[in-house]
Automatic annotation (TrEMBL):
Enzyme Commission number(s): 4.1.1.-
Gene3D superfamilies recorded: Aspartate Aminotransferase, domain 1 (3.90.1150.10), Type I PLP-dependent aspartate aminotransferase-like (Major domain) (3.40.640.10)
Family (UniProt): Belongs to the group II decarboxylase family.
Name of this chain's protein: Pyridoxal-dependent aspartate 1-decarboxylase PanP
Gene: panP
Class in the EC hierarchy, top level: lyase
Length: 540
């Protein structure tokens, strides 16, 4: 590796002088600006498949002693890092919520990094602060649709906030539940509030045995982190069985009542608008009523599905979301913003005062510093990417993308249903579905004895795991897998392929090719061969 000189003169150049036009870094920049997909398909060329092999390139625990030239470092990055990244732009990469980004984000992120604003306080962000507040207000309006007076009163008010911008759904969920906790265990005569006195005193004062958080079994794992961080404890994350993939209101009510009768208090019910595993939406309207009856906070985790609100045709699937006290949205999922864009939105503009924090040198009383009510401190100007996306796509542009993805999920479900080698496990509600390979000989398996079902499902589970790995390693396409309880199999947990149709560049032919590849892999697999010979008579 070519070493640069160790001098301030060299370092000043690094700060101020761009690389010359034919340097590696300049070439990377040009290629990225010309055609990101082409850049990725040329440079992401996974030759090393095992992580152990890749780890060898990252094995030293020493900070390099001497400076390197930027260009030679860029070469090394291409070779060691970029080559072994994941091409999330590939149209056949349909396993996760991370996909291709629209073009404008590359120059805009350069602008954002170049400006290097810090949103924690006005002094380092100026116009970025009103921009972020407006962006949160637009999202608030999409969910709660208050009148113009409401937004002109609260959008830029120093004593209020319509939400908290943060790095993602996890922090948004934690922020929302932090606010809920501080409101529930707030100050009273003789008690200074949980934020000052701590949880132990709060439980004593309020005479609470345990504080619980209720969600369906499909709740995102960030909720487990939230109850841990907030001191509520993982044992008090009440995950209700959900063989129909939703939190059933009657079950929630009965469970909540029984829980409260034991001297416990319920902090919140979490309704999910688009579960991470299957894309199902909880009955939000009814759950809001249950929360009201149980006297607890109602939070909706719409990290993934929230963008459905852009679609006139599909937004009714989230009916009742406007009754939520708080809502989590991830712009870096179905809103095609680069990672690092989450939002916790609060119905009541005063709610986040429950976590307001002041400090002497920043976040002064009466200031509009966003850092006073956010969990994170220093934050970059990601809100600009959301703001720009709102403008560049418009609600109607997003509507087209959302509707297209949902339509494509239905088309894919039809392909799966029409194919004799597959079984659709959960039909799409949004643009997510699960399925598995299943030989025609096992059609009607749900009608067999539970012992037969169990035995054969276990073999199919093993097949699903093996085919998913083989397909991923072959590198042409990627679907993910998960394990979910399925009602028609007596709530048995079953391993399934999981598909998220997020990339607008994915075509129906890509989907056909993915199914064909899976069939080809299955036909060479011993389990498939064995099950295909399974005489129907023997199942019965
Ligand atoms: C993705 C997701 C989260 C977590 O969001 P991050 O941005 O990964 O922190 C939470 N809830 C749901 C439903 C999600 O889909």
């Amino acid at each position: 590796m070519a070493k640069a000189e160790v001098s301030l003169e060299h370092l000043f150049r690094v700060f101020t002088k761009p690389e010359h036009n034919d340097s590696t870094l300049a070439k990377i920049e040009r290629h990225l600006s010309d055609n990101v997909s082409d850049f990725l398909s040329q440079h992401v060329v996974t030759k090393k498949t095992s992580l152990e092999e890749i780890e060898q390139d990252f094995s030293s625990a020493h900070v390099p002693d001497s400076p390197e030239f930027v260009s030679s470092h860029a070469e090394a990055l291409l070779d060691k890092l970029v080559a072994h990244s994941v091409n999330t732009y590939a149209p056949t990469f349909i396993g996760h919520m991370t996909s291709a980004l629209p073009y404008f984000h590359l120059p805009l992120s350069k602008l954002m990094v170049g400006l290097n604003q810090n949103l924690v306080k006005i002094e380092t962000s100026k116009a970025f602060t009103p921009l972020e507040r407006q962006t949160l207000g637009m999202m608030h309006n999409l969910i709660y649709a208050q009148d113009e007076d409401f937004y002109s009163q609260y959008l830029h008010s120093a004593e209020h906030s319509l939400g908290a911008f943060c790095s993602g759904g996890t922090i948004a969920n934690i922020t929302a539940l932090w606010v809920a906790r501080n409101l529930k265990l707030g100050p009273q005569p003789g008690f200074s509030g949980v934020n000052k006195a701590g949880l132990a005193s709060a439980y004593r004062h309020y005479n609470i045995h345990n504080l619980g958080l209720m969600t369906s079994r499909r709740g995102h794992y960030s909720l487990g982190k939230a109850v841990d961080v907030l001191g509520i404890g993982r044992d008090n994350l009440l995950s209700i069985d959900s063989p129909r993939q939703i939190l059933e209101p009657e079950k929630a009510l009965a469970f909540g009542k029984a829980y409260q009768e034991k001297g416990n208090s319920l902090l919140a019910i979490i309704g999910i608008a688009g579960t991470t595993e299957t894309g199902h939406i909880d009955p939000l309207d009814e759950l809001a009523d249950v929360a009201k009856e149980l006297g607890c906070h109602f939070h909706v985790d719409a990290a993934w599905g929230g963008a459905t609100l852009f679609s006139e045709r599909n937004r009714s699937k989230l009916a009742g979301i406007e009754k939520a006290d708080s809502v989590t949205i991830d712009a870096h999922k179905q809103m095609y913003v680069p990672m690092g864009a989450g939002m916790a939105i609060f119905k009541d503009p005063k709610a986040s005062n429950a976590v307001r924090h002041h400090a002497q040198y920043i976040l002064r009383q009466g200031s509009k510093d966003l850092g006073a009510t956010t969990l994170e401190g220093s934050r970059n100007g990601m809100a600009m990417m959301v703001y720009s996306s709102f403008h560049i796509f418009g609600r109607r542009g997003y509507e087209l993308l959302i509707d297209r993805a949902i339509d494509q999920a239905h088309a894919f479900a039809d392909m799966i249903n029409a194919h004799e080698c597959f079984e659709l496990m959960t039909a799409p509600v949004l643009s997510l579905l699960t399925y598995r390979l299943r030989p025609i000989e096992l059609k009607g398996l749900e009608n067999e004895s539970s012992q037969q079902q169990r035995m054969l499902n276990e073999q199919l589970d093993e097949l699903t795991v093996s085919i998913q790995k083989q397909q991923r390693e072959a590198g042409k396409s990627f679907v993910s897998r998960t394990r979910i309880e399925i009602e028609k199999y007596n709530n048995q947990a079953i391993t399934v392929f999981r598909v998220v149709l997020a990339n607008p560049l994915t075509t129906n032919d890509d989907l056909k090719a993915i199914l064909a590849e899976q069939v080809a892999l299955a036909e060479g697999h011993a389990i498939w061969q064995g099950l295909s010979k399974h005489p129907r008579a023997k199942i019965a």
